[in-house]
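Listing S7. Sequence submitted for prediction.
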Amino acid sequence: MPEVRAKKALGQHFLTDQHVAERIASTLDDYKGMPVLEIGPGMGILTRWLLDKGHDLKVVEIDTESVDYLARNFPQLDGRVIEADFLRLDLQTVFGDGKFCVIGNYPYNISSQIFFKVLDYKDRVPCCSGMLQREVAERLAAGPGTKARGILSVLLQAWYDVEYLFTVSENVFNPPPKVKSGVIRLVRNNVTELPCDAALFRTVVKATFGQRRKTLRNSVRPLLPPGASLPDIELLKLRPEQLTQDQFYELTNLISSLRS
């Protein structure tokens, strides 16, 4: 069968290494029997391993050429290929109220947006794994005190245990990307409620990393009402990448008290 042309506009780089594909599929071995959604299957190198492992699989693909290829080569996916943009897909219509896992060789150009959407379904997605640009993967797993730490690091780690698993060479793709890739796994932790206002927490994280070169004392001022006075505490002398999860909760509660 003719192969699918990689389209630059869709960020397509097709994995060609079966061993890597199997390792990525194996990240969901603990979730057999739970529905799985694969994002951007392309020509199905990861799809094949997920099916071989017996997963209850659906795939979402925006590229019509890839959809046609999957229809020809994976008859077992009949009725399970969703031709859509994942970022606009209503997952409630796909899985109802049930839980499901997410996996994929994620397009570099939308990988961060994919994980923001996973966050919106955090109580429905016990595990999310896959491959993305190495620098982005490292950022998601970055701990306090590292330069890689950013908005998604903190937001995801509030609800998930994030683990960077392994690096993938650019030479196992067609066409090869200009950067290496990294495989990560997010496993839902036991947190059911944050020790602060969750919406304000998200606002605080975004505001502080939006001005990451400033100390917290300066970056949080736009979140406060006019005339509000910040206390003289060590926390406010730090920059956002230095904070632990608990310190972000503390900062959020401080801002909440000053706003009320």
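Caption to Listing S7: primary sequence and predicted structure tokens for the chain studied. Residues 198-259 form a domain with the Helicase, Ruva Protein; domain 3 fold (CATH 1.10.8.100). The chain has two domains: 8-188, 198-259.
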